[in-house]
Amino acid sequence: MKISRRNTLLASSAATAWSFVPGKVRGANSKISVAAIGVGGRGNGVLKSINQTGMANIVALCDVALGSGHTAGSEELFPAAKRFKDFRVMFDKMANKIDAVLVCTPDHSHFPASMMAMSLGKHVYVEKPMARTFQEIELMMAAEKKYGVVTQMGNQGHSDNNLYQFKAWKEAGIIKDVTHVDAYMNKGRRWHPWGDVTAFPTGERLPENLDWNLWLGTTAKHIDYSNKMHPGNWRGWHQFGTGCFGDWGAHILDTIHQFMELGLPEKVSATKLEGKNSFIFPMASTINFAFPARGDMPAMDIDWYDGVENRPPVPEGYGKEHGLDHPGKFIYSKEHVFQGGSHGSTLQIVPYEKMRELLKAGALPKNFGKNSDHYMNFMKACQGEEKTNSPFSVAGPLSQMLTLGCMAQRLGGTLEFDRTTKQITNNKLASTLLKDDVRKGWEQYYTL
User: Fold this and answer.
1) Residue ranges, CATH 3.30.360, the chain
2) In terms of DSSP H, where are the helices of 153-222?
3) CATH architecture of the domain with range 159-368+402-432
4) Does 429 have pLDDT greater than 80?
5) Nearest 5°: CA angle at 258, between 337 and 112?
6) At what angle do helices 110-119 and 5-14 cross, to 10 degrees?
7) pLDDT tens digits, residue range 380-398?
8) Spatial distance between the Cα atoms of 321 and 425, rounded to a whole number of angstroms
9) d(CA 198, CA 301)
10) pLDDT band for position 19 (cuts 50, 70, 90)
C-alpha cells in the first residue's frame, strides 16, 4: 500500500511550494482534461453528464474494479481514456495531463483521492457527502482554501431552481424567522432486509478484476469482501457509508442549511431508533438537530425522519392527497409553512390557496433566470467563467452536520457539540468517531 517515491515527492512538494499556487484555470475556449475515479454506478452517470457539457476531454478512468461489468459502461463510452485501478498510479503517470478530477467512489474513499488531487493543483468534483468523517471534511475544506482549486460537491439540485428560489424568497422577506424543519426520506433501503447484523460477512469469493485491498482504502482493520459492500451496498455500513441521511440529507437540506446560515448544530439527539446496530444503520430513525440564534435569525431545529413507516407530522392545510411518497421537507416559520421535495424541486406555501393569493398579488419572485446545471457550473468554474454553487466551503459544514447525525444513529442518545472548538463535549466514544483509524501507509493524506 506504499505510495511510489515520485508520488510521495509530489505530495510533499504540494504541501510546501504548491500551497501558494492556485489551481490552473483553463481559458473559455479550451477543454478541461478530466480524470474520473470511481466509474461504475453513479460514477458512470456523472461521467456522462460531465461529457454532455461539451467542455470535457475525458483522459483517464480509474476504478478498483476496472475490467468488470460494473465499469463496462464507462470503459465503452471512453475507449481512448487511459485506464488505472489505483489513483496514486494514475497521478504518478499523468498528473501533468489532468486539469480536473471526478471522485465518485464510496463515501469512505472520497478523502484520499480528493486530497491528493487538490494537493497537485487539480480541480475536484466529489459526490455527496464530501467524506465519511467530520475530520476528513475539515481537512478537505482547508485544502480547498490552501491550494486555490475549484471544488464542487455533487448535490445536483444545488444548481437548480430550488437554490435560486430559496435565495430570492429569503431576500424578498418571504422566508424568514424559520423555527423548525421536518425532513424525511421513507423509501426502503438496501440494508433493511439484513436484520440484526452482528459481524462483518466472511467467506465470499472475491470477484475477478476487483482489487479489494485497494477498495478498503484508509480502513485500518481488514474486512473480507462481501457483496453486501461492493457494489453499492457499502452505504448501509457505518464503516463505509453514511446511510440514508448522508445519501439524501444533502439533497433535501442543502438550501435550508446554506441560506439559514446554520453551520454546525449545538446538540444532536436520536429521539427514535429502530434496529440500532453497531455495524449497519438502523431500520428507522428520527434525529433532532438544535441550532442557536444566528444574527437576526431565531434559534431553530430540524427533525430528520427515515424508515418506511417513520413519517413526520403534516402541517394543517397539507391535504392527504399529496401524500409523503417522495423525499421532502416542511419548513415552519412564524408567517408561512413551506413544503418542498429534494434536489432541485421548488418550494410551495401551505395551504396552496395562500400561495396562489401571494402569486396573484405579485408578492412572490418566480423568475429565476437561465442558469448552468451543476455539471456545467463546475466546468465553467474550471474555465474561470463562474463560481461553483456547492464548493467545499459551502458543502463542508452541511456534510459535517450529516456525519454528526450518522453518529447519533450509531450511538443513540444526545451529543452536545461545541461549535467553536468543533468537539463533542459529553461523549468520549463519540469524540473518537469524529475521525477514523487510518491504515499504515495512508497517513500522508491527512497531512497535505
Assistant:
1) 159-368+402-432
2) 161-171, 212-216
3) 2-Layer Sandwich (3.30)
4) yes
5) 135
6) 70
7) 999 999 999 999 999 999 9
8) 45
9) 34
10) very low
What length does the chain have?
Answer: 448
Distance CA 343, CA 70 (A): 26
Start-end of H helices in 209-287: 212-216, 243-252, 254-259
CATH code 3.40.50.720 region(s) in the chain: 5-156+378-390+437-446
Q: How far is C-alpha 97 from the chain's CA centre?
A: 27
Question: Which residue shows C-alpha cell 439540485?
Answer: 157
Mean pLDDT of 174-194: 97
pLDDT tens digits, residue range 297-348? 999 999 999 999 999 999 999 976 677 889 999 999 999 999 999 999 999 9
What is 5-156+378-390+437-446's CATH number?
A: 3.40.50.720
Which grid cell sits at 262? 446554520
- Which residues touch 406 (CB under 8 Å, ≥6 apart)? 238, 242, 243, 245, 246, 281
Model pLDDT, residue 6: 52
383 DSSP assignment: T
> What local confidence, expressed as pLDDT, does residue 28 receive?
67
